[in-house]
Amino acid sequence: MRKHNRIAISVLIFCAVTLFVMPTGCKKRESGKPRIALIMKSLANEFFKTMEDGARAHHQEHADEYDLIAVGIKDELDVAQQLKLVEQMVAQGVSAIVIAPADSQALVPVCKRAMDAGVIVINIDNKFDEAVLADKGVSIPFVGPDNRKGARLAGEHLARKLKAGDEVAIIEGAPNTFNGIQRRLGFEDAIKAAGANIVSSQSGYWEMAKANQVVSAILTEHLNLKALLCANDSMALGAIAATKAAGKSDDILIVGFDNISAVQELLKEGGILCTIDQHADKLAVYGIEYALEMLTKKDAPADKETPVDLITAETL
To answer: DSSP string covering 113-179, please?
Structure first.
């Protein structure tokens, strides 16, 4: 009899513990609200921290409509960790994933698996590679800016300060990123139209320290350099430090992209010529709102272009 009592008590304890430690995902499903996961790149980059802050502010205003999980990776190139984050979010039973992929190609298969599991996926910031999407037979909507257009705006503003034949260099983003490629192409569009001479185009892998090294080497090799076009503001900051160390701060114009707060004082002081605002605080929000729309309407996915604006000392 005592043995049966012990078994009954054990069952009751197990049930109580199971209810107590029920995964958050189960609780959220009971609440009837969708759970949206925002998966970003490096939160060490101010751009993505601003993106996160914007998403959290939107969630606070709409807490009755959805629940938010916001995560990022340690640096811009930590693709393996971002793959794991997608898998973790699927395992947690999220309704939708809004992702700024660190690699335009490598993240496609895991996002397809998420979609096969019934999760809606929205691509923001860095567009997935069209060829890889086609190869996997998947359509993932991109909600984000025309990076080529934005870079061309910055390049055209710079070109008005240059003469035909002036030497310039481009500091590119990571090689397998669509937005990095598009920004390089936008810079090239403007500089070639102006008749200036692109003497070097190298990757700074989105990082300040790496860009600093690359620019230092370029300055040594190209003594008549007139301008540096950087595919993000973090790399522009590295370029500024390199030109300062080389004693060329007054001789070389620098262009950035992202409009992070760290460059805004430099814009006012003339340390950087211009940058492009793709509205980091709203970019994730656009993706979240589209995910909520798709969850409600079940419409076929379609790309949505978001704004880009040229930022100068005059327009800041």
So the answer is: HHHHTT-EEEEESSPPPHHHHHHHT----EEEE-HHHHHHHHHHHHHTT--TT-EEEEEE--TT-HH
Q: Please compute Rg for the chain using Cα positions.
A: 23
The encoded tokens of residue 179 equal 């937005």
Nearest-angstrom CA–CA distance, 316 and 293: 33
Q: pLDDT tens for residues 53-70?
A: 999 999 999 999 999 999
Could you confirm whether domain 147-277 is CATH 3.40.50.2300?
A: yes
Domain ranges of the chain: 24-144+280-307, 147-277
The CATH superfamily holding the domain 24-144+280-307 is Response regulator (3.40.50.2300)
Q: What is the pTM of this model?
A: 0.86
3-state secondary structure of 211: helix
